[in-house]
Amino acid sequence: MAALNELKDSGNDIATQSLKISPTDRTSSPPDINLPDELWVTVLDSPCTFPPDIYHGVMLNMITNPNVTSSHLFRADIFFDTGDHDDSLDSSHHQLNKRLKHIKAEYRPFDYDLPGYTRTRTMRLEQDDETHIVLYIPHVQQAEEMPFYHPTVSKLAFTHKWRLVPPPTETPNDTTPSHPGSVSISYSLFPTPAPAATAAPSLTPKLSRTALRLLETLHKHGQGQQAGYQKRVHLDRLIPQKRYQDTYTRLKTKYGRQLAEQWIEVTDPGKHVFEDLGIAAFLVEVWRDMYVLPGEAIEGKGGGGGRVEFPGFVDIGCGNGVLTYILLSEGYPGWGFDARKRKTWYIFPAEIQEHLQQRLLVPEIFQSSKRAQETNDDSSWHDGIFRDAPGSFIISNHADELTAWTPLLAYLNNASFIAIPCCSHDLAGSRFRAPLGTKAGKANTRTTPGIGDRTPERLPQQQHQDPITESPAAITKSAVKPAKQQAAESGSLARTREQKKMPSAYSSLCSYVRSLAQDVGFEVEEEVLRIPSTRNLCIVGRRRAEDISGSVAGAEEEFAVRRERAVRIVEREMGRSVEVVGGEWIARAEGLGRKPGSGH
User: Fold this and answer.
1) What is the full DSSP assignment across 40-70?
2) Hey, what CATH topology would domain 309-447+504-593 get?
3) Of 63, 313, 361, 395, which has the fewest Cβ atoms less than 10 A away?
């Protein structure tokens, strides 16, 4: 079943728990499981207040997601699962045998029973008190066969005890709290040589640490569920976990070691290489759903399932070029460019280097500005219209100045896109704190019933700045109410409750890019990528919906119409003419091209 090692915390932010863990050493006490032919030891236990149904849910999550407790594992592939309560797993049973015959013999479930317990799926129930045990039984016969990521025990048991009627206190003055439940971790140890068998069982420090981490995880998740914890980050919404992880494993095996060993940048290859491998795996699976891929055989009319031929890709702001290299090596036609060359480009084969170019992207709508006419260099500029491969899928991976432009470029090219934001820049290329939405989005929010009723969050220093707009009653009320002290007055730099509610700069940037994509008619999708980066949210625009006028947006829309719409958006967001914004963009882009390249 699930595999365990020295266990890593799940990283989930559990809500305030009603009871903190209080582990008690049980190695010198009688074990919770006592069988004559097996050496069991209960390592630790702790009181708990969560009932059996929560325990079942937590254990099922730990079984199906072993990555919660082991950083070495992706997931659990369930070979066999049944809700049958029959104690017998006799292979002569026709239906059961029919289901098990396709499973390798060494992977078939064991016929294992505990006296006094009834089998219910993977759970066993004691008949009198509610005692629930989940057993992990590895398919090995001796300790030497155990994988490195699993504790070297023959069986592992998670026990949950629940008293329906709380026991009475010992004395009237006894104030010690009595909790209705407890959880414990037990090991069944491998047989030891005869001289050592008579001694009391001893655990290695590693096994003791593992038991503690297991107990902490079970207790933390159980108490958190009881306190009403709701998962905030949902993964694998666009691509199933198995598809993504299988592709990632294949790419990592094929390219990971080679790229890490050849890395010549000063940055950490462990981050950049495996981050780009994860993004490449995600793109490969997204494209599998969207396009007929290169080399894919399609039989019969309509065999593509509505998919179109892969149009190619362009990686804008490609940085170190690793993502472009992987995709090209996998057979996907495309290219990448960046304002600065990277040392990493020269470790790639010559046929890959041909598809990596040093170019400055100056959007086509800026090309008519006075600054553009004075400084235009056709060899180093690109206008963002990819005429050689119309409809190329646009990739924007931590592209900084190009991030906000990504949905606009996709719209101008009648293409799909993926944007993985990092640093916040406006449409003139200047650093800024992005708002939560575009100005058009804010206008729509104000005019939509039920949406504009809520006043946007403000920092404390932004409150009560405009007394002219307040009613006399409000002014009188605010005069009576004492003002909150500012940091200089209170001497505290701790964030206030209002400040904690404010979205982060990164969250605001992602929201702003999403709003820009919606302004040009994209059906926006989002995914939290499984990559080693805190900047792991991607915004995907695979298709466009009906635009505001009701006509279907698509290839029929003339470029001139799209261009004019993009101009209006830029002027609306920046509050000045496209000529002025274009001049600012070009000045910054030229300065960027003169800087030395970084590792990304």
Assistant:
1) EEEEEEEEE---HHHHHHHHHHHHH-GGGT-
2) Rossmann fold (3.40.50)
3) 63
Distance CA 548, CA 343 (A): 46
Query: How many Å apart are CA 167 and CA 530, to the nearest integer?
Result: 47
Range 104-116 average pLDDT:
63
Instruction: Give the contacts of 590 (CB within 8 A, at least 6 positions apart).
Output: 360, 375
Q: What is the pLDDT of residues 145-200, one digit of tens each?
A: 998 888 899 999 999 999 887 655 555 555 556 788 999 999 999 887 655 555 55
Instruction: Report domain extents, the chain.
Output: 24-168+176-226, 309-447+504-593
How far is the C-alpha of 208 from the C-alpha of 211, rounded, in Å?
A: 5
Secondary structure, 3-state, 352-413: HHCCEEECEECCHHHCCCHHHHHHCCCCCEECCCCCCCCCCEEEEECCHHHCCCHHHHHHHC
Say how far apart CA 37 and CA 41 lie, in whole Å. 13
pTM over 0.85: no
Query: 102 pLDDT exceeds 60?
Result: no
CA-based torsion, 329, 410, 560, 555: positive or negative: positive
| Residue 317 one-letter amino acid | G
The answer to whether the beta carbons of residues 413 and 385 sit under 8 Å apart is yes
DSSP state of 431: B
Q: Is 155 helix (H, G, I), strand (E, B) or coil?
A: strand
Radius of gyration for the chain, computed over Cα atoms and rounded to the nearest angstrom: 31
pLDDT in tens, 534-575: 999 999 999 998 544 445 554 556 899 999 999 999 999 999
Instruction: Name the E strands within 85-122.
Output: 117-120
Distance (Å, rounded) from C-alpha 360 to C-alpha 316? 10
Residue with tokens 């605001």: 508
CA distance 415 to 534: 28
Helix, strand, coil share of the chain (percent; to 5)? 35, 15, 50
Give the helix ranges, DSSP H, for 425-576: 439-447, 472-480, 487-490, 497-501, 505-519, 559-574
Residue 312 CB-half CA count within 13 A: 14
- Between these two residues, 440 and 552, which has the higher pLDDT value? 440
**Model pLDDT for residues 269-322, shown as the tens digit of each residue:** 988 999 999 999 999 999 999 999 887 766 655 556 788 999 999 999 999 999
Burial 1-24 (b: 16+ CB within 10 A, else e): bbbbbbbeebeeeeeebebebebe
Model confidence over 323-349: pLDDT tens digits?
Answer: 999 999 999 999 999 999 999 999 999
The strand pairing partners of 161, in sequence order, are 131, 182
Bridge pairing between strands 308-309 and 291-292: parallel
Please give the torsion angle defined by the CA atoms of residues 10, 15, 18 and 22, in that order, rounded to the nearest 10 degrees. Answer: 20
